[in-house]
Amino acid sequence: MTVSDRTVAIIGAGNVGGRLAKNFATGGQDFLLAGSDPEAARKLAADLDGHAEVVTVDEAVARADVLVIAVWLDSFKQLIAQYGEQLAGKVIVDPSNPVGPDSDGNYRKVIGEQESSGQILAGLLPAGARLVKAFGTLSAPTLSAAAWREPERAVQFYAADDDAAGDLVADLIRADGFEPVRVGGVDQSIRIEMFGDLHEYGALGRVVTKSEALAAI
Ligand SMILES: NC(=O)c1ccc[n+]([C@@H]2O[C@H](COP(=O)([O-])OP(=O)(O)OC[C@H]3O[C@@H](n4cnc5c(N)ncnc54)[C@H](OP(=O)(O)O)[C@@H]3O)[C@@H](O)[C@H]2O)c1
C-alpha cells in the first residue's frame, strides 16, 4: 500500500502547512486542506493546480487516512482531545516543535529538556492511531528552498514506531521534494525536533544529503 492509495489531509494552512501544500502540489500529491480560516485555505488552494480540496477540519478528520497536523503543540493537543476516537486507525503526522518565544524574542523549549512533542502527542492518541514525526526538522523557508534539490535530493528525517505508517510518510516526504531518512522510533523524535542534534539548527546545523544523513544518525 502506498500513499497514492490513501487520502491525505493537511490541517493548518499557516507557514508550514502552506509550504507543504505547495510542495505536495508540485509533487502531484492530491490532498484535503483544512485551516481555521476557510477563506485563507481557499486562496492557497487556488494556486495548487487542483491538487488541494478545501474542506472543514471535521471533514478532513472523517475522510483522511493520513493527517498532517501543521499546528502548534497546544492546538495539536486540543485537536486530539476534540476528535479522540475518530483518530483511531489513522496515521498522524507531527511536524511540531515544542518551542515558544522567550522574553528576548528567542525560541525556548516549552516542555521538559528530555521530552519531545512527538512522544507527548503519541501518548495522547487513542489506541490504533499511529504517530509519525516528520516535516519539523527544517525551518519553513528551507522547506521551500531545499525542495526538489538537484542532482541529489535534500533529506527530511522522520521517526516512526510502525513500519507501514513510516513507509506512507516516506512516500509523502518524496512527494514533498525530499529524500526520507528514518531516524528510528518515535522515542527518537527529540533528535529531529528543534534543539535536537539532527535539526537544521542543531549540531548538524544544515540541510544534508542521504549519505550525510546516514552518517549522522
Ligand atoms: N515555522 C517554522 O519554521 C516551523 C518549522 C518546522 C516545524 N514547525 C512547526 O509546525 C507547526 C506549525 O507552525 P507554523 O509556523 O506553520 O505556524 P502558523 O504559521 O501559525 O500556522 C499554524 C496554523 O494552524 C492553524 N490552526 C490552529 N489551530 C487549528 C485548528 N484547530 N484547525 C485548523 N487549523 C488550525 C492556524 O490558524 P489560526 O492562526 O487562524 O489559528 C494557523 O494557520 C508548529 O507546531 C511548529 O512548531 C514550524
What does the model show?
- The chain is α/β, with parallel strands linked by helices.
- 35% of the residues lie in helices and 19% in strands.
- The chain is built from 9 helices and 10 strands.
- The strands form 2 sheets. An 8-stranded mixed β-sheet has the order 3-2-1-4-5-8-9-10, with helices on both faces. Strands 6-7 form a two-stranded antiparallel sheet.
- It is globular.
- The two termini are 27 Å apart.
- Residues 11-17, 34-37, 57, 70-73, 75, 79, 95-97, 136, 139-140 line the site of NADP nicotinamide-adenine-dinucleotide phosphate.
- The site of NADP nicotinamide-adenine-dinucleotide phosphate has 24 residues, from helix 1 and helix 4.
